[in-house]
Each structure stands twice: as C-alpha cells, then as structure tokens.
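@channel anyone free to eyeball this complex?
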Amino acid sequence: MLKYLFAKNEDIPSGSAAVFFGFSAILWFVVGTGLGSFNAAKLAFPDFVTGNEFFAFGHMRQVHVLAVILGWISMAFAMAMMYITPILGNTRLWSEKLGLWNCLLWNIGLSLGLTLLWGGIGSGREYSDFIWPIDLYVALFVALPLAINVWMTILKRRVQGIYTTNWFFGAGVFMVIIVYLTGNLPEFFHLTGLSEAYLTWWFAHNVLGLWITPVAAAIAYFTIPKVTGNPLYSHRIGHLHFWSVVVFYSTPAAHHLMSAPLPEWLKSFASVEGVLILVPAIAFVSNILLTMQGKWYMFVESLEVRFTITGVLLAIPLNMQGGFQQTRAINWYIHGTGWIVAHAHLALLGFSTFLEGAAVYLGLQSLMKRKLYSLTLGNMHFWLLLIGFSTYWISMTIAGLIQGAGKIYEVPYIDVVIAEHPYMIARWLGGTLVFISNLIWLYNMWMTAREGTVIPAGRMPHELAYER
Amino acid sequence: MNFREYKIGSRMFGFCLGGSMCITLFLPSFDFRSATSTEVALDKQLSAGWETGWSVYDPLMLGANKPLKVLVKKDPKTGTDLATPMYAYVYQKGVPMPNAADHPGNLGKSVEDLSMAKGQLGKFDKSTGAVYLIKKEGDTPYVENATATMGWMPEDVVSKAADADIQHVGAGKTMFVREGCWWCHTLLPEETQDWQVFGAPPYLGDFNGESPTAFGSDRKAPDLLHVGSRNSSREWMTLHFFNPRLVQPHSIMPRFDYLWGDVDASGQKINFDQWRADYNDYRAGKRVNPPDVPAYAKNSEIRALIDFMLSLK
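replying in thread with the prediction:
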C-alpha cells in the first residue's frame, strides 16, 4: 500500500484505499477487544498484573473504548464508504490517493492519541477524552478527507439519483465533523462547569446518533439488496428513517444526565425526543426485514446476510432499551450501572459490529477479487462473536440490575461488589471469546488475500461456492 | 447537479440540524449562564485552579502549576493570630489564574458584583501571583483577592504555614483525572435515591468554573462527591490506596502503590518487590500481619490525591 502514496492517482488500483482501511479496521478490532478482555479480567481479579500504571484499569479502560470506536467501527465505516459509494454511483472513488493518505494519517493520529491516553494524558471528558490538539487532528485530518472523498464521489457519479445508503454516508461524514468541532468547544475555548458537562454528553450522544447508528444502518441498506438481489422494500420508509434520524436523534443529549442538575425543561424535552428515536429504529428494522422476503434461506447460507440480519435483529432490543431506559420512570433505577455498559456493548458490539463485519467481509472479497478462504473459519468467527457478545450482554445486564437494586435499597456498596463477582467473570469470558473470534477473522482475511480463489471479472463473491 | 431535490434536501437538512442545535445548544446556554455560583463552586474552582485535565500549563499531567489550599492561622503579613483560621487559595507566580479571575461573568451576577466591588477580584497581578479567600455577605458568597485587599503575598502564606496545613487539591484532582478514578467512582450523587448513603446531590450553581467536571457515568464503586465527610482518616486512605485489600478484602479497586514514587517520607528507597512478596506470604497464611505500608513523601503524587479526597466534603 505504501508504494502508492506518492504514485499518480490513475496508477493506483481501484479499491486500494478500501482494502487498506479494511485490514486496519480488523487489526484495531483485535487490539481493541484484546484490551477489553484484559480490562474485564482486572474487574474480576483486581490483582491480575499490578504495580505498573500502564496496566492499571484507569489507564487502559478508555483506550479500549476509543480503539474500538475510532479504530474498528469508524475505519470499517471508511472502508464501507470507499467500497460502496463508488458502486452506487457507477464510478470510481474520487481519489484513491487521498484515501490512502487518509488511512495512513488516521492510523498515525489514533496511535498517538491512544498512546497519550494510555499514559493518562487526556481531557477528563468521557468519549472526547483526547486532548484538544488530537481532537482537532481527528476533525481535520481524519474526518474531513473522508468527507471530501465521499462527497466528490457522490457528485461525480454516473447515475441519476442518489441511493439511500449514500444519503446517510454523505450526511454522516458532515455531521461527525460538526459533532467533533462543537462537542469539543469546552476544550478549544475552555468552557467550564455545567456547559462542559453538558457538551461532553452532547458529543457522546451525537457521535453515536449522527455517526455510528446511521452509517451502520446505511451499510445494511446496501448489503441486503446487493446480496439477496431483492430491491429495497421501500424508499419512502428510507426517507422516514433518514429525516427522523436528523430530527429526533440529534436532540436527546441531556438524557445522559437525567440525575444531574440540568434545567428540567431540557431533561423533559430530551426524554420525549429519546422515545421518538423509536421512529427511525422501527423504520430501519422493518425496511430491512421486509426486503428479505422470499430470501430468508440466505440468512442461513450466506455469511454476509447472516451477519447483517443478526445486527438488524439486535437493533430491536437495542432500541427498545434505548427508547425507554432514558425516561425518568426507568432511568433512576439503571443509571450508571452495568445495564448501561451492556446497552453500550449491544449498540457497538452487537448491532453495529455485525453490520460492519458484513461490509468488511463483502468489500474485501469483492475488491481483492478473492473468495473467502474458509467458510468454517467464518462460521467460527460468527458464532464465537455472537456467543461471546451474548454472554457479555446478559451477564452485564444482570449485574446492572443488581447494582440498581443495591442503589435504591442503599445496601453497603461492598455487598454489591461481592454480588457482582460471578458476572464479572462471565463478562471476562464473553469478552475473551470475542477477542479470539477476531483473531480467527484476521487469519481468515489474511489467507483470503493470499490464497482465496480468484473471482472472475463481473462476478460477485457470493455467487461462488465456498470451498473450505 | 441541476436537480431541484438537491436544493430542497440540503435546505431541509440545514433547517433540521440547525433547529435541533438551536434547541439543544443555544437555548440551554441561557440557563447555564444564569447559574449563580454557590460557596461549593467557589471552593471547587479556587482549590482546583484553571484546569485539571490536559492543558499547556501541565502538559504531562504531573500536577504542575496548580494552586495550593492553605489553612491560614496567622496573618501572613503581620504575623498576628487570626481570630478564626481560614482557608486561603494560593496562586503562586506562574500558576494560571482561576476561571473566576479571567471570566468573572461566569460567577453569576450577584457573586460577580460582590467579588468585583468588595473583593477587588479584578485587581490581580499575574506577575506576582495572588491569594484568594471566600467571603460571605448575607447568603451570597464572593471571592476576595487578599493580595489586593490586605497585601497577602503568595510566598508569605506558603512559607508561614505548616506542611500539614497545605493541601495540594489542584494537583490531586489532576491525579484523579489522570489515573482514571472517575471510570468507577462518580462525582454525582443522583437526585432520586443517593441522599442516604452518598449525601446530597449537587445544586445547579455547584460547578461554575470547574473543568473538567468528571461526573463519571459507570459507577462500579461508591460515589465520592462527599467522601471527605464520610471518611476523613488520612491513615485509612493511605492503606487503602497502597493496597485496597488491606482494609476491604472484597474490594476490586486497583493498587495505586506506584503513586508513592521511589522513596518514602524519610527518603529511603521503597522496596516494592519485597513488599509484594511479604504481602503474598500474608495472603498465603505464612505471616500473621501484612507488611507495613510505607509513609509517603511530602511531594509524592499520592499525597496530592489524598489531599483532594479529603477536600471532597
């Protein structure tokens, strides 16, 4: 890949940037989930590796979170955009060279930010933990080049309309820049107090709601019609999904601070808007599931469809939780407990990861023109990921309910810690399964690049039979 | 490019996103601006200083360039005993001024007016540093610039105070942020159910000038906003930070022994390997008592962190 950095754009093979992004994403996923497994071990066994600040839980916790969000999820998004946007416009990526530089700068910036954070050097604001020079770097040298590439590819397309997926891609890259620049205002201009606290959660909410959720959904709008051959069930419902994301998902930031002294009108407004997130959620899930009509056998037979539909099905509990857990009636019980940790993993490791996994499987096979090396390893990846995630989610949900009960009955906190111990072990085991599944995935994709059967010109990967 | 849909779509998009940002950012800013500092907020921001996350004044987050909270028993200028001891917030030369000094408007109208008029808050001189006090008129607290009103110089306050009366709260909060204490311990008792165990939830004006607020969101351990009121034992804190299992066998808190640095209070090198070996023997039942926890050095990071803990009243 590096040899193309200074090549002429026309000389760079189509898809190079997407492949670079795809493998970077898988590598970051391995790193991120490895850190997650290590952190979980420390919560179950606090004396596991002690005496060194670089292996202290407080130093490693957020490195796991940001490695997964900005490394795995966002880089998989970039891979999907560089693969899907040109296809939907019947054209090439606007600039492969910009894409390659984007990926290189992304890896450098993320490595630097995470190294500093590992040393404890951060802003002290959850999710926008990076120091403001790194935040600025992310907005200008990570998100902006990606946005330019996506927008220019859409503008230079050779078809008339713009398909649903590309609305979300084009809007998502715009919104993530706005969110990064606005959400970090407290660091750029040293805003303090409640403004700082509120904007921290404004950022955290919107980076999920205006970047991760819509872009992940956009991937499913491409994968399912493309692999099944069915047209999207309804573009009208797609419109409803898109506009309700912009209107409803961008407003409930205050529901993350329901028990903080924010203005009451703001909390009530956020709570109502939070329930309305069910509108885009139901639109999305029903649209994709109805697109599957007559092709449900592919849920079993096709790895890409299985990953996508699993992600879409996980969006149902995700949004049922998300819509209602933020209302005052429920939030007082579960706020700040493991329930929320489970919910966050349902969003990022359940819903979103499965959708991106499908895009990376499909994209890497298509762009490298190589059939997946082994279906067996692919199946192992799927099942270990799903079982590991489910173990994590169920055990953390139970732990959260225990914490909630301990909170309202005001038992001594140490009794809650003791009661949670078995679930902390289960969480660690689940997280370790996820980590192992990703090692298998990395090996499988590496072998696909080296030894996968060559796909003939004009054929899609899912049209060839699996060989192993 | 000529389709009308582009124009309609992008205008609708701008209207929707702009509208939502107006409601969620612009409108709440009026509420936040109208929040008037409480005494708690003044104490928090004056003792923590300008910033306790990353800043150019403390790029490696070592707790550098932070103010000191000093219990003053004698007038630093005249040397006479004060009628009642009081806390002074000492900003030595080079330490960035607190938010209240640079942006008094953030204090809220009534507190700002009193601080400027009676407290002479505007008359600070960065080249000499400043000493601040918290005073009250009626129910309204305000900041007094003691360097301007009484001629208290920062170096006099520090040199005339005993070491036990000096609290490194700002440096300690930097440790709190850097070490990730807030990934498990929240600083936000909830309004609905935390009163009995963790104390009163904060008020609207309790945060003015504080950065970062570090509420925390994932409570795996007790809330710490009022921990200094529940437990004011420096000895307990020392044991608990060195190895939490010494005082709470079921704790899952990490050991923070590395914050002791290389040497103990008497300047002796701390032998951590020996300590861990002895502790393992104790856990295995080969020793009756656990090994002694070394006394921390005066300028160690753990001292600052415990100072911060005990300041959370």
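from a first look: The mean pLDDT of chain B is 94.
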